[in-house]
Amino acid sequence: MEPIIELNQVTKIFKNKPAVNKISFSIHKGEIVAILGPNGAGKTTTMNMMLGLLEPSEGSIQLFKKQPKDKFVREKIGAMLQEVCVIDALKVKEVIHLFRSYYPNPLSFEELVDFAGFSQNECQKRANKLSGGQKRRLGFAIAMAGDPDVLFFDEPTVGLDVTSRKVFWSTVKELKQRGKTIIFTTHYLQEADDIAERVILFHEGKIIGDGTPLDIKSKLTKQAVTFSSDSTIRYEDLTALPFVTDVYEKDGRFFCLTEQPDDVLKAIFAKDIPVRNIGIERGRLEDAFEQVMEKREVI
Fold it and tell me: Helices 132-144 and 109-116: crossing angle, nearest 10°?
């Protein structure tokens, strides 16, 4: 399968300093790709170059074998950026109708309202009266207006509550089923772990990791002793165990991060902590991310 997005030796320089430094990767149809990295790593700059909002200083970028600013490309992509800027005096329904008019084969108004989760009352609101979360949802409707093949989301769930985040990612999974290609940046690493099929790690303008979340987590030296319990277990008892560096709970299971799982298990049994369904797993993507960054800093 041919890639629909290709970056080859792309560099972007601001004030004689490279924000992005000779990066190359390709993305295929139907992939969900998370671009991760600390602030200033080059994530948003790279996304803006793919969107044609910035020109690379060196290298080449192609979408559908064409330049990002090509009219054909513009009609095939949608973007939800961190800032949603629309005409404040327009109502939500007017904004959606306006953006639909820009495309040859837009989604119906009803579909866009349904995707964004707007009620009839919200559709009558003026843009300047929207809450932060409502503006994010309007940004999503705008991104979807042209029924794009490729969607770019830059920090899409910032400002959304937990329920709205779940609804958003559920919709993304539905879009994946429709054959859409989705590229997103996020600071919520658990989102990338749960949603992305592929993670591209950025650090200081370079790519330092590219693979599935499992591939990235395989770089971990730490593992997790995981278990459930029918009794109440105090976090203090778990964090006090020898060789345990962190403890967290997810879906009713405890996870004790460690580099020596056998010794942790011995300590659990020696202290007679009531556990069951014991397993040993790799840690979270967040742990891998932190460790990869730490190693990079040392190098």
Answer: 140
pLDDT category at 295 given cuts 50, 70, 90 is low
Residues of the chain with CATH 3.30.70.980: 223-282
CB 148 within 8 A of CB 5: no
Per-residue pLDDT of 17-66, as tens digits, reads 999 999 999 999 999 999 998 888 899 999 999 999 999 999 999 999 99
Q: Hey, what CATH topology would domain 3-212 get?
A: Rossmann fold (3.40.50)
Nearest to 34 by CA among 167, 178, 157, 144: 157
Taking the C-alpha atoms of residue 115 and residue 172, their distance in angstroms, rounded to an integer, is 10
DSSP run (H or E) holding 36: strand 32-36
Query: In CATH, what class is 223-282?
Result: alpha beta
- Each residue of 54-95: pLDDT tens digit? 999 999 999 999 999 999 999 999 999 887 777 888 999 999
The answer to whether 182 touches 172, Cβ cutoff 8 Å, is yes
| Comma-separated ranges of CATH 3.40.50.300 domains in the chain | 3-212
Question: Which pLDDT value is given to residue 85?
Answer: 75
Task: Name residue 258's amino acid.
Answer: T
Query: What separation in angstroms does the CA of 109 have from each of 98, 132, 168, 248?
Result: 10, 22, 18, 43
